[in-house]
Design a protein that fits this description.
Strand order of the largest sheet: 3-2-1-4-5
Distance between the termini: 17 Å
Order of helices and strands: HEEEEE
CATH topology: OB fold (Dihydrolipoamide Acetyltransferase, E2P)
Helix content: under 10%
Number of strands: 5
Radius of gyration: 15 Å
Strand content: over 45%
CATH class: Mainly Beta
Mean pLDDT: 85
Length: 101
């Protein structure tokens, strides 16, 4: 919910949508502490390729949590991202734990 609100405020919800193709997925656990409790989050770095609105090849990566549909992605799987029309190297996906707006 917060990510979608942030995207709407930045205008990313109006950016053109393009298809991205997964090139690699690196899964790992990240330890985290809250007070006296230590737990780990399962994350995956997803590297992908896409064609921008000028038909030029671009590459990017996002980090997703294990609750994301992209956590179990494999090479050549596809998903949708939104591109900043002024800066095609900047993109947005609601799946990510970080945004590249």
């Amino acid at each position: 919910m917060l990510k979608e609100l942030w995207a709407r405020m930045r205008g990313a919800d109006r950016w053109p949508e393009v298809q991205a193709t997964v090139r690699s997925v690196l899964r790992y656990e990240e330890p985290s502490a809250r007070g006296r409790y230590v737990f780990s989050r399962r994350l995956a770095d997803v590297t992908f390729a896409y064609m921008d609105t000028r038909q030029e090849h671009q590459y990017g990566s996002i980090t997703v949590e294990d609750s994301s549909s992209l956590y179990d992605a494999k090479e050549d799987d596809t998903f949708m991202i939104r591109l900043n029309p002024a800066h095609p190297e900047r993109y947005y996906s609601p799946e990510t734990t970080r945004s590249y707006l």
